[in-house]
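User: quick one, fold this
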Amino acid sequence: MGKKKGTEKQLVHFNLYFSPFFKDSYTRIYDVLLETYNRTYDAIYKDVKENPEVAYKACLNKAEEDIFCRAVFNSEYDDGSEYYEQIQNNAVNLMQEQSLMHYQFVLMSLSNLYQVFEQQLRKWLFKEMTHHHNEYLNQIKFTLNNEEKDYGSFYSQFGALRNVIEEMKLTFTMPSPIASNLAEWAGWFDSEVEVPIVETEIWKTIRECNLLSNTFKHGSGPAAIALYKIRPEYFETVSDTKLMNLYRTTNMEEVLSVDKISFEKYVMAMKIFWGKLKERQSGSVLLEVDITSEEKEPTN
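Assistant:
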């Protein structure tokens, strides 16, 4: 697309501030999410995954109660083997349903987890980038012509968030691999180095969670292809065929190996992200600025 009439590309500089209050608030939610996830698992799904004999017995009892609530068994005229077979079939169905509910619980929890992180990041970036200090610094005015629409398009995809963080050259302070691996030479090297956020394992792990979320929501597609390249073990297969492609669903069949997926791993990556984000950073972004108005305004 060409340049919009009355606009020009300008390098806009931003000073970003991440207050200790926001750091505490943003990181604490992950403790709550992990605790809630673990309590729910222990209360509802633990026996299904770790004590299947106990879970099956409970399903058998429920199936038996359901059968005899709907029909009166007469030992003189009714075939007991038919009742018993129906009870067993119903118990197996109940176990399969509970296993599917656990599968959905894990993936819905991961999808929600990523959405929490993305909304936190977008909210913080928007608040800081449109701060009046940055308006004064650049002599421009940030305006929302349609608040819902304009904010809705503000770095609303993972790729866009990655690009703006990369463009602003935001970094984490990380331990130096040389100083860590060669203790005898540690005095000759800096103990810490600045690493672009998008190159860290923290960011790559968050990206995995984003791909898991999109794969669960959309099934076969770009996210599933990208996830398979880095985590093929997350996909159930028969020969070389992914069950996801065979069943055409990621929701109503267990086509992802949720037992190999660690909710805590992704929780900790997001918590560490906010824990390591610096209180103050700055960077520049090339934006299209409206130069027709008295006060210059960035445009989408």
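User: anything notable?
Assistant: The longest helix spans residues 80-129.
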